[in-house]
């Protein structure tokens, strides 16, 4: 099987660029404005790396933004270079009879931006063209969100993001590979079956494609720590949660595990209020409901920007346009600080499937009042009561019937 190697200009220093150019290319004028008349049409024999240590390696694909060396004949008077029909800029000072250096433009059409591409590299001079089969790959996969961080082996997990093309493997924390993965033609999502043996404490979900591996970020970790309430064995229930709001069943919604909180009502329009649309976690005895363990994740001195409020949300038969989820807490002067997100930005279907919703704690604000560090959240209000509230808000003018479930309300350190 032919082995492909992917190269990026970002890995090379300017010094290496100049060194390689000096080694590979004959001396030319500093800035020739027009290539001289060619004696014969160009010929492309191979594509090589800019790295001198890999100069003997050849390949037939590379990513956007990579710099490659074209090896062939009659290249010194090249007038144009195109990738999939898109023109690339190049310096004729770095063109010799047998070598030509060029950077693949980021704007080059790939399967990420065009339904069909030619997968052709074309070098032209005054005598003709040379065409070479060459695949320009999109950037490495980028995971921007996961459908549900609270998954178990055997369940489907959908990843949302960009550039899910030519996927070879999906790796779960602990180094085990997912099975039965599939992607949509637009490359914006990937669904995979969660494998047995994964350990959410040991890393991230990583997608490997022909372009390379996705990077770990705040959205690539599966649930493990930070629970405030799972509505089963960890239940600091407070005001706003009547017994009828805690259930293990709802029309069109199956539980993740055990019980969940439920908002099942006609949401009053124009930001109207109702206690039945509020899920409030509080221990009015002054107990600490926010996570402090492990200490490395929940250092009181860490900036509040390191933390997010997260929860799983499932929606059944509800029009989500104009429906928001608000997260609230009280700070040390008793001010209620809040942040709102549009549910449709996270909940991608209304068929009862569960999705993870994330709200940065740094976005909680009341005028100029906000939290500075994690310890500010741990203090609670003047009386020492800690509140973690989720409210479903209807910004539409008319009432909206809604069935919305919430589970696993937690605080997550996104830097760990």
Automatic annotation (TrEMBL):
It comes from the Bacteria. The keyword Signal applies. Residues 58-131 form the IPT/TIG domain. Keywords: Signal. Gene3D superfamilies: Immunoglobulins. GO terms for molecular function: polysaccharide binding. PROSITE patterns: PROKAR_LIPOPROTEIN (PS51257). Residues 1-26 form the signal peptide. Residues 225-412 form the Surface glycan-binding protein B xyloglucan binding domain. InterPro entries: Ig-like_fold, Ig_E-set, IPT_dom, SGBP_B_XBD. This is Uncharacterized protein.
């Amino acid at each position: 099987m032919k082995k492909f190697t992917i190269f990026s200009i970002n890995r090379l220093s300017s010094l290496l660029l100049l060194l390689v150019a000096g080694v590979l290319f004959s001396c030319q004028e500093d800035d020739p404005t027009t290539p001289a008349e060619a004696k014969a049409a160009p010929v492309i024999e191979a594509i090589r790396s800019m790295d001198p240590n890999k100069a003997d390696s050849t390949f037939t694909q590379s990513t956007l933004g990579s710099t490659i060396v074209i090896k062939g004949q009659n290249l010194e008077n090249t007038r144009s270079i195109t990738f999939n029909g898109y023109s690339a800029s190049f310096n004729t000072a770095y063109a010799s009879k047998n070598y030509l250096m060029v950077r693949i433009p980021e704007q080059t059409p790939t399967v990420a931006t065009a339904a069909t591409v030619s997968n052709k590299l074309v070098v032209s001079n005054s005598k003709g063209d040379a065409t070479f089969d060459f695949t320009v790959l999109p950037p490495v996969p980028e995971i921007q969100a996961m459908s549900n961080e609270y998954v178990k082996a055997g369940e489907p997990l959908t990843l949302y993001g960009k550039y899910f093309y030519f996927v070879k493997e999906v790796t779960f924390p602990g180094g085990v590979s997912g099975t039965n993965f599939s992607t949509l033609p637009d490359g914006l999502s990937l669904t995979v079956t969660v494998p047995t043996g994964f350990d959410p404490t040991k890393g991230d979900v990583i997608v490997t494609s022909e372009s390379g591996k996705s990077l770990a970020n705040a959205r690539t970790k599966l649930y493990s720590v930070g629970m405030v309430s799972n509505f089963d064995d960890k239940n600091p229930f407070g005001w706003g949660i009547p017994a009828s709001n805690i259930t293990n069943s709802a029309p069109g919604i199956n539980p993740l595990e055990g019980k969940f909180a439920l908002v099942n009502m006609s949401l009053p329009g124009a930001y109207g209020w109702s206690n039945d649309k509020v899920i409030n976690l509080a221990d009015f005895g002054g107990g600490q409901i926010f996570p402090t363990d492990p200490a490395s994740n929940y250092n009181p001195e860490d900036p509040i920007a390191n933390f997010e409020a997260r929860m799983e949300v499932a929606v059944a038969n509800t029009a989500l346009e104009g429906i928001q989820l608000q997260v609230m807490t009280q700070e040390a002067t008793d001010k209620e600080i809040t942040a709102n997100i549009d549910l449709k930005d996270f909940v991608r279907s209304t068929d009862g499937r569960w999705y993870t919703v994330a709200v940065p704690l740094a976005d909680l604000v009341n005028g100029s009042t906000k939290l500075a560090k994690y310890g500010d959240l741990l203090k609670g209000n003047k009386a020492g009561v800690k509140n973690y509230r989720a409210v479903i808000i209807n910004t539409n003018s008319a009432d909206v019937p809604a069935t919305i479930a919430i589970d696993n309300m937690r605080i997550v350190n996104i830097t760990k």
